[in-house]
Amino acid sequence: MNGEHTWNEIVSQPEVWRAAIAAGAQSAPQLQPILRHPGEALAIGCGSTHYLSLAAAPLANRFLPGRWYALPSSELYLFPRHHLPRKEGALVAFSRSGETTETVLAVRAFQQSLRGPTLTVGNYPESTLARECDVALIIPQGQEKSIAQTRSFTSMLLAFEAALAATTGDAEFMASLERLPSLAQALLDKASDLASSLGRDMSLDTLIFLGSGPFYGIACEAMLKMKEMSLSHSEAYHYMEFRHGPKSIVSEGTLICALLSDTAAAEELRLLGEMRSLGATILLVCPEPPAQNPAQLTLATGSGVCEEARLALSLLPLQVLAYQRAIAKGLDPDCPTHLDAVVRL
Question: Taking the domain 180-328, which CATH number applies?
Answer without folding.
Answer: 3.40.50.10490
